[in-house]
Structure formats: structure tokens, C-alpha cells
Design a protein that fits this description.
mainly alpha; three-stranded antiparallel sheet; elongated; 3 domains; hpI Integrase, Chain A; DNA polymerase, domain 1
Length: about 325
């Protein structure tokens, strides 16, 4: 069948002149418009096959091929989520060569009303990467539209005070309390906490081993657990055979909505789950842990990422400055 419906939208299914099976959404609900789109697509396929014209590709085709070719990426789940839930609904059915810089800028501005510049930039970087691949690798386009990113402040550090933590823990749903507490105690990223498995835990040594395949820097990371962190792990025993943190017998995939609602009830603004890592790091720095030690504990490959916390420990820096004074003071006076 050439035209068929999925819900209220018409889809196309046909075999092109080269024998390739083509299935795609028309992105319209009217049969007449869908038929016109189908006839145009078949005509372009015929010209590409018989006359050598370069076939026009849609955003849907580009997004699907990107997911297929980039399946090895650590962040592919993020790409899939953003494409399917955020970008595709806006650009589905459009030819790549018809998507303009203005179209993309308009999309970004709409998102900018509710999201931080850095969040919108992640969507734009993904789109830019797909367009560049369509030009340089797939040969689908001669030129990609220019995509401008927002200027975002570097080294954003947002962390909680003791009072903030108290209020947040009270407002969290019961199944999120151990997750957030463990993140605050270890500095682990959300994905590392939610995907934590019993095979990664050495309870005798009191450590968690995160494999390089799950780390941003690609290297294995050993996390030494505090007494309370070990207690949290113990409290989860018997709930699931594979995963440490679960909800109703299943591995937890997403917690953003429940976490945001708890923050709202606790009257905490401009805070994300990843900022638990900032709270952990900031607390350590303010209590005498050196930047070098923090880098090792947090598995940062680039020391520049750790230097942004240096200003949080002025007293420690002043104490360090006195060391040379004490040792050489008399000689230099």
C-alpha cells in the first residue's frame, strides 16, 4: 500500500527505481496533501535513478541514519531522546535543503524561552553535526545551513547549602531519597547512579568501580564509599538482582520530573540533578580538599575543569600562602 495512516498522519511505503524500500511520514493528515507529497517523492526518485539527479533527502532520513551510524556513542540515548521528542516534531517531513538558518534560529528561540542557553546549544550542536555529516559524509547536500550557538557563561557552579539539602531531602519522593543522597555523597553523574549494578560494587573494600565505557573520560573510575554511602547501598539489597536503585521492581530510567517538582516544593531554583556533583565538589573544596585530590576523586581528565572550584576555598589558599612565609620568613626579612 502506497499511502497508509498511523494515527492521524499519513505515511508512505513504496519501492524506488533502484529496488530500495522507502518508508517515511508525510507529516500531514489530509489524504490529498499526502498524495501530492508521495507523487513528488516518486518523481524525484525516478529523476535520481534515470537522469542522475541528486535525490533530495528529508530530515527524518538524516536523523534515522545518524542514530544508526552513531549507535556506539556513549550519549546516543540522549541523541535519540532529543531527536524523537524535541527536534523531529518540528522538522519532520522537511527536505534538508529547505531547512534554513532562520528556521533553526526560530526553533532555538522558542526553546530559549524555557531553557538555559547551554541546554539549547546541545540541541543545536546535534543538528549542526547531522547537517555537516549530510554534506561531508553522505553527500546529500552541497552546503549546510549556518547554525549559531548561544553564548553561555563558562564554568557554571550551582551548589546547595546545608539548609538547602535539608529542605530538598524532605520533599523528595521516597524512591529518590537514596539516589540523590548517594549522588551528593559520591559526586557521581546521574547516569552512573541510575545504572549502578551490584557487579560494580566491592562491599568488602567499600568501593564502586565504574567502567570506562560508562565514564565521560573513557577510563575506569574507582569511587571510595563513605560510611553513609555504604549504608545506602546496603539498604537497597534484595530489591533487584541487577540494579542497585530501582522503583517498583524496575531500573529507573528518568527522574527529572519528580526531581524538579521536589526542588519546587523545597523552593530551590536554578538547580539540576548534575549540580549535585557541584555540591559535592564545592563542599570538599571548602573543607580543605586540594584541587589535585578533587580531580582524582571526581575523575576529571582536564585540570581546568577543577580549577573553577578554587575560588571557593579562599581561607585554604591563604593558609597555603603562609607556608613559604613560615619556612623562609626570617631569611627573607
Amino acid at each position: 500500500m502506497a499511502l497508509y495512516k498511523r494515527g492521524s498522519i499519513y505515511w508512505i511505503s513504496y519501492t524506488d527505481p533502484n529496488g530500495k524500500r522507502v518508508r517515511c511520514s508525510t507529516n500531514v493528515s489530509g489524504k490529498k496533501q499526502a498524495q501530492e507529497f508521495f507523487d513528488k517523492l516518486k518523481h524525484e526518485s525516478w529523476r535520481a535513478s534515470k537522469l542522475g539527479d541528486k535525490p533530495r533527502r528529508t530530515w527524518d532520513e538524516a536523523a534515522a541514519l545518524w542514530i544508526k551510524e552513531k549507535s556506539y556513542k556513549k550519549s546516543i540515548d540522549f541523541d535519540i531522546f532529543v531527536l524523537q521528542r524535541i527536534i523531529n516534531p518540528v522538522f519532520s517531513g522537511l527536505y534538508l535543503d529547505k531547512i534554513t538558518r532562520e528556521d533553526i534560529a526560530s526553533f532555538a528561540e522558542r526553546k530559549r524561552k524555557t531553557l538555559a542557553p547551554s541546554s539549547v546549544n546541545r540541541y543545536l550542536v546535534l543538528m549542526r553535526s547531522i547537517f555537516n555529516r549530510a554534506v561531508r559524509i553522505w553527500g546529500w547536500m552541497d552546503k549546510a545551513p549556518a547554525i549559531m550557538l548561544y553564548k553561555a557563561p563558562k564554568g557554571r557552579i550551582r551548589y546547595l547549602t546545608q539548609d538547602d539539602v535539608d529542605r530538598l531531602m524532605i520533599e523528595l519522593p521516597e524512591h529518590l531519597k537514596p539516589i540523590v543522597a548517594f549522588a551528593l555523597l559520591t559526586g557521581l553523574r546521574k547516569s552512573n547512579v541510575l545504572n549502578l549494578r551490584w557487579t560494580q560494587i566491592d562491599q568488602k573494600k567499600g568501593i564502586v568501580i565504574i567502567p570506562g565505557s560508562e565514564m565521560k573520560n573513557g577510563e575506569n573510575h574507582v569511587v571510595h564509599l563513605s560510611k553513609r554511602a555504604r549504608s545506602i547501598i546496603s539498604s537497597q539489597k534484595g530489591k533487584h538482582d541487577e540494579y542497585v536503585f530501582t522503583f517498583r521492581g524496575r531500573n529507573i530510567k528518568r527522574i527529572d520530573g519528580a526531581f524538579r517538582n521536589a526542588l519546587k516544593r523545597a523552593q530551590i531554583s536554578d538547580y539540576r540533578f548534575h549540580d549535585n556533583r557541584h555540591t559535592w565538589a564545592s563542599t570538599l573544596i571548602q573543607n580543605g580538599v586540594s584541587l589535585y585530590e578533587l580531580q582524582a576523586m571526581g575523575a576529571w581528565k582536564d585540570p581546568e575543569m577543577v580549577k573553577r572550584y578554587a575560588h571557593l576555598a579562599p581561607e585554604k589558599l591563604r593558609e597555603n600562602a603562609e607556608i613559604v612565609d613560615v619556612l623562609f620568613g626570617n631569611s627573607l626579612s
